[in-house]
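Researcher: If only I could read backbone structure tokens as easily as an amino acid sequence. Walk me, if you will, through where the backbone shape changes along the chain. I have put the entry right below:
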Amino acid sequence: MANNFSATTRQNLALLIFNKTAWTDLAISDAGTTTNFYIMLSTELLDADSTAVTNEVPVGTYTGYARKAILRTTGGWTCTAGVVTNTAVVTFDTISAGSPDLVKAAGITHAASGAGALVAWGPLTTELTIGTGVTPTIQIGGVSLTIL
């Protein structure tokens, strides 16, 4: 299937959404807009029907789990040819209680917790184990999203 957007459009969309970079003559980046996105962990793969709480690691079951804030800047996200990756290692808080489970995907939302728009989602490049005593960590580039 052919792409519906040019390479320039894909890159500019990525920069606008993830780095708050204005797109000359088409879109401005409002300084008052959301400063952070939040990475949520999911035990299942997400899709277009998913929400910010669909299959998210349950806070009540995994004591210590919380979404992690990532700045909408080049310090938070790298955008290259319409592919967006996390620029830095993302370290979640240590889980103090919860049975072992496998984290397969990450979702990107504007809400620090609870319901909120799911901006993007994708499988982790390396699945994570979560459970008591575990500090979930996503390596640089562990979240990789493509604007098609």
The chain has one helix and nine strands.
